[in-house]
Amino acid sequence: MIINNKKFESGTHIMAIINMTPDSFFAQSRATDKDVLIRCEKAIEDGAEVLDIGAQSTRPGHTPVSSIEEINRFANHIKDIKLHFPQIPLSIDTYYHDVAKYALDNGADLINDIWGLQYDNGEMAKVIGEYDAACCLMHNASEDKYDDLIKDISIFLQNSLNIAKSAKIDSNKIVLDGGIGFAKNIDENWELLNNYDKLNVLGYPLLLGTSRKRMFGGNPEDRLQATLDSTLLACKKNILFVRVHDVKENKEVIDRYNAEHN
């Protein structure tokens, strides 16, 4: 996969979560106007190779905010982040096409769309294609109802890929996300995690997002070890990216795995 002229081909790489939201489910991940650059710098020092900025919480039970509010939350930061860390690809977590356009106009490199281009009748795909940007296409659904979980996710993501192709999005700039924690119960989340590599049938690299999610039980503060276990699984399944809150600890898992298998 190519993001901002940087090629990610093998191994497992870290996308760091930088939350510009006041209500993210993991309180310790919430960045403020005063510390966003500090958090970005630390994430990079700890081993992040992509930064993912989110301005709307997508936790269960969240209250959606408008595209205008999303833009207002990170409007003063995108250019600063790219100015200070030009070598690090910058991802924006949004499903609003006008937010994506604003972000890409101001230096973002990747759009992380939790609705896999299927939220707005092709407008998001059109924006990404016009800017020749990279994208992460995630599975989502309006309700938790499946005949065959892996098959249904694959069908959704194939439809996303068809939309991307119609919008002339570069196939080398696409990564897929099975959407753990989105429209799935706990058992389904575990089924997906344990069978994540079956999504390889679609022919695109994968991103895994399990960091501190409620499938692991307990409170978000107590879910680090389970997250690290899932990152080790990602290494074993050759998943290209893990999207995480705790960069240093996850990088240590990846480094240990690489040392033992290279």
CATH class category: Alpha Beta
Number of strands: 10
The structural domain count equals: 1
What is the H/E string?
EEEHEHHEHEHEHEHEHEH
Structural class: alpha/beta
The average pLDDT value, as a whole number, equals 92
Strand order of the largest sheet: 3-4-5-6-7-8-9-10
Q: Considering the protein shown, what is the CATH homologous superfamily?
A: Dihydropteroate synthase-like
Please bin the fraction of helical residues.
25-40%
CATH fold category name: TIM Barrel
Low-confidence regions = none
How would the global form be characterised? globular
Percentage of residues in strands: 15-25%
Q: Calculate the terminal CA-CA distance, rounded to whole Å.
A: 22 Å
CATH architecture: Alpha-Beta Barrel
Largest sheet: 8 strands, parallel, barrel
Continuous helix count: 9
Q: What integer value in Å does the Rg equal?
A: 17 Å
What labels describe this entry?
10 strands; alpha/beta; globular; 9 helices; eight-stranded parallel β-barrel; TIM Barrel; two-stranded antiparallel ribbon; 262 residues; 15% strand
Structure description:
The chain is α/β, with parallel strands linked by helices and 262 residues long. The chain has one domain (2-261): Dihydropteroate synthase-like (TIM Barrel). It has helices at 36-46, 67-74, 78-84, 97-105, 123-131, 149-166, 186-194, 224-236, 247-261; strands at residues 2-3, 6-7, 13-19, 50-54, 90-93, 110-113, 134-138, 174-177, 206-208, 241-244. The chain has an 8-stranded parallel beta barrel with strand order 3-4-5-6-7-8-9-10, surrounded by 6 helices. Strands 1-2 form a two-stranded antiparallel ribbon. β9, α8 (224-236) and β10 (241-244) form a beta-alpha-beta unit. The chain is globular and about 40 Å long. The two termini are 22 Å apart.
